[in-house]
């Protein structure tokens, strides 16, 4: 359990319900750096025995975990809603993603395939094998406190690695619950260790563990700034981390788009989970011919969104994850400039009884709620165009030519997700080809993932690593080649190939 991984400098911290800050969801003692290093040391010792467990049996463990999560789906979703403020319907979808991930990797336990490769030499066979890396340290964020950890933990464990998991301090209760389900599903004690720690402690403990040779892989989901630090640390130890970072995800609306469908997609992309997804919509890029009509429809739809208590079925989005998330979002609002236009309601920032929102359900003063904000007139030179806002804010921009739309979709430097609304197949495929995002949707939102599809980004959104599906296996295994020579004499590969070529040419002539 988590308490086994605490260090000597124990200190408590609390996780509060963001819909009602009076409600303490859990109180945990945070580890010091020695605690994280000790957890890595224990996981490192356990790795060889876990790797010797046949991969199909490790797949059965993933199946067991998925079954237990399914049996506890409603309870886990309710805990997600309570701890991070995600509407209950969305929380159920997140838990289903954990189940889907476990289902997928049950099969991969029987498909950790290598290859038999033909040799250029006679009487020689070549083989390739996937090998586990060793011990992984996985650091996850609060906005998807169950699904994203599962994206890392399930394939890492399936491939024969051991894991030290450091969840967000804002989602410690969900982490404890998910950790117990993994343990109950058959994951041995030291094969998966849970450590609660703050960011600086995690960095210090990870640095020590890397120096001792205890960690062979880092997985990190979080901000681009923090990802840079993790990447630099990994690079000093000649490692390539798996990074899933921020996004400024564009949604292009062409002049032939179905505007009603585009509005629906933009609303969901921008304001689901209160805009706190790495794939949340950053900017709508609308053709000038339809810009004004789109903006009118979009603003009206945003005005009608119901905000409030995330336990209520009518709610579109609930609170931000916590007070520090609200403070960061307020910083994003400071990027609004005089040449911008607040479309629809002009109320911004925190929703309170003194700054109310029409149709709000619940007690606005009890939680951490924010007004949805639509900012029109954003230009490519604006800092708002280049900055991830991570909250309920969407920019709207205009374009004239397809080349300009592509430039705006790529120009902010992020490359996680993008969407285009068009009736033209040619336009859709051309956008896919020229867009730098790792994931592209056509006539669909910028958000959403499936367990068997690669997930990840480029540029400021990541280092090209991918999660989910068969592609994540390359993050948690290395390729080993083997050559078996049964000629009974030394064969010197390329040095002897010339002789073979000459002999072959002679015989063919």
Automatic annotation (TrEMBL):
Active site: 244
Gene3D superfamilies: Aldehyde Dehydrogenase, Chain A, domain 1, Aldehyde Dehydrogenase, Chain A, domain 2
Entry keywords, A to Z: NAD, Oxidoreductase
Subunit architecture: Homotetramer.
EC number: 1.2.1.3
Protein name according to UniProt: aldehyde dehydrogenase (NAD(+))
Region (Disordered): 1-20
Domain of life: Bacteria
Keyword NAD attributed: yes
Family: Belongs to the aldehyde dehydrogenase family.
Residue span, Aldehyde dehydrogenase domain: 13-481
SUPFAM superfamilies attached to this UniProt entry: ALDH-like
One Pfam family of this chain: Aldedh
Record keyword NAD present: yes
């Amino acid at each position: 359990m988590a308490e086994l991984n605490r260090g000597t400098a124990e200190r408590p911290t609390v996780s509060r319900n963001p819909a009602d800050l009076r409600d303490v969801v859990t109180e945990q003692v945070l580890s010091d750096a020695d605690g994280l290093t000790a957890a890595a040391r224990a996981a490192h010792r356990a790795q060889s025995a876990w790797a010797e467990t046949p991969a199909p049996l490790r797949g059965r463990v993933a199946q067991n975990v998925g079954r237990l999560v399914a049996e506890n789906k409603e309870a886990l979703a309710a805990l997600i809603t309570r701890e991070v403020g995600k509407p209950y319907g969305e929380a159920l979808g997140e838990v289903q993603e954990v189940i889907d991930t476990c289902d997928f990797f049950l099969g991969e336990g029987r498909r950790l395939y290598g290859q038999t490769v033909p040799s250029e030499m006679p009487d020689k066979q070549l083989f390739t094998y996937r090998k586990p890396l060793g011990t992984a340290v996985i650091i996850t964020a609060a906005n998807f406190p169950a699904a994203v950890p599962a994206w890392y933990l399930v394939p890492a464990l399936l491939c024969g690695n051991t894991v030290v998991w450091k969840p967000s301090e804002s989602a410690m209760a969900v982490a404890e619950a998910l950790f117990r389900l993994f343990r109950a599903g058959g994951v041995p004690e030291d094969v998966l260790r849970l450590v609660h720690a703050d960011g600086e402690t995690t960095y210090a403990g990870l640095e020590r563990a890397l120096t001792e040779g205890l960690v062979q892989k880092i997985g990190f989901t979080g901000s681009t700034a923090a990802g840079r630090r993790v990447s630099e640390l990994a690079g000093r130890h000649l490692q390539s981390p798996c990074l899933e970072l921020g996004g400024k995800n564009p949604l292009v609306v062409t002049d032939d788009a179905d505007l009603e469908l585009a509005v629906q997609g933009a609303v969901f992309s921008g304001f689901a989970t209160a805009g706190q997804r790495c794939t949340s919509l950053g900017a709508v890029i609308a053709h000038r011919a339809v810009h004004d009509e789109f903006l009118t429809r979009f603003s009206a739809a945003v005005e009608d969104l119901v905000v409030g208590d995330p336990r209520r079925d009518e709610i579109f989005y609930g609170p931000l994850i916590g007070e520090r998330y609200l403070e960061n979002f307020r910083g994003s609002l400071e990027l609004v400039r005089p040449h911008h236009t607040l479309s629809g309601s002009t109320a911004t920032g925190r929703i309170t009884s003194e700054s109310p929102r029409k149709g709000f359900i619940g007690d606005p003063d009890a939680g951490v709620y924010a007004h949805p904000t639509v900012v029109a007139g954003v230009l490519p030179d604006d800092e708002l165009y280049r900055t991830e806002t991570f909250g309920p804010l969407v920019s709207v921009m205009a374009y004239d030519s397809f080349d300009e739309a592509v430039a705006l979709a790529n120009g902010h430097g992020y490359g996680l997700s993008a969407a285009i609304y068009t009736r033209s197949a040619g336009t859709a495929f051309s956008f896919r080809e020229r867009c730098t995002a790792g994931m592209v949707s056509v006539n669909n939102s910028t958000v959403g993932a499936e367990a068997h599809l690669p997930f990840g980004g480029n540029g400021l959104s990541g280092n090209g690593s991918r999660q989910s599906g068969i592609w994540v296996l390359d993050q948690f295994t290395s390729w080993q080649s083997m050559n078996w020579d049964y000629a009974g004499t030394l064969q010197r590969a390329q040095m002897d190939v010339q002789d073979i070529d000459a002999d072959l040419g002679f015989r063919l002539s």
